[in-house]
Amino acid sequence: MSWHLSYYQTGDLVSRYDYQIYFEDFRINNEIEVVSRLLTQHNISNITLLNLACGPNAAHSIALVKEHAISYVDHIDINKQFLELNRTHFNATHKHHQAWLDDEKCQYIEMDMQALEQQKTDRKYNCICLFGNSFGFFEHSVNLTVLKSLYQRLDNGGLLFLTVPKYNINLARNKSNPFTFSVNKEDGTVFKSSRTYNKDTQQSDCITEKYINGLLEETTHRSIAIYPIEINEPGKYSYRKFQQLLGFRSVELEKLPHNPNSNGLMMDLDMIVFQK
What we know:
This is Methyltransferase domain-containing protein. It comes from Photobacterium gaetbulicola Gung47. By secondary structure, the protein is an alpha/beta fold. It has two domains: 3-167 and 227-275, Vaccinia Virus protein VP39 (Rossmann fold, 3-Layer(aba) Sandwich), CATH 3.40.50; 169-224, Single Sheet (N-terminal domain of TfIIb). 29% of the residues lie in helices and 31% in strands. It contains eight helices and eleven strands. Helix 2 (25-41) packs parallel to helix 3. The longest helix is centred in the first third of the chain and has 17 residues, at 25-41. The protein starts with a helix and ends with a strand. The relative contact order is 0.15. The mean pLDDT is 90.
């Protein structure tokens, strides 16, 4: 089983040390600002929204529903627990949520984004979002396939938003200069993480050690691909290359501000915006 399946699909994510990252208002508000501004700038109305890897917090969908006319909004996540929490949050905040569910204007789908290619659906979207550093968990070819599936679901003129780690900051985090951080829980449990980026493989690897009463209890390994907006090196991937391979009309980078109250990769993110 790949690390992302064991970590995101089968685990109890609510009890994880980094669960709070899904509720960071500073990041969420900045992401919403970019999406809302560009939807308006591109004259995209009657929004058909796909919130992919939606997580437990419905804040993005709630805000976009308030700011724009929405035809329908769908949520996909690999974790059933997260989908139920998202549904509960949305339902408690949006008075028409149950009616939307009944009319299939709002759907919750438990699925690994790798399976998008096999999913049969007539749904098209003019706005697809992967918020909170949810892209790049796989081999480069699989990441490309995920983008291809999203391209196929996107209406002409529609926008695809990816929140991703800042490339230049992570490029400097090699083995001789790892990025380390720790999280201390109220019960005394300590999580110590070390993250390094390999510019040859374009992978950022993270090792996290869990200590209880000072004793090492568990070690987890995670990795994510981090791409630049463009790069002129043979064999390397970039968002410009993905644009050219898949036929997107354009790709742009929207800078997001540093988030000092987060940890790990979530402190320094940007937003990649594709248009079909």
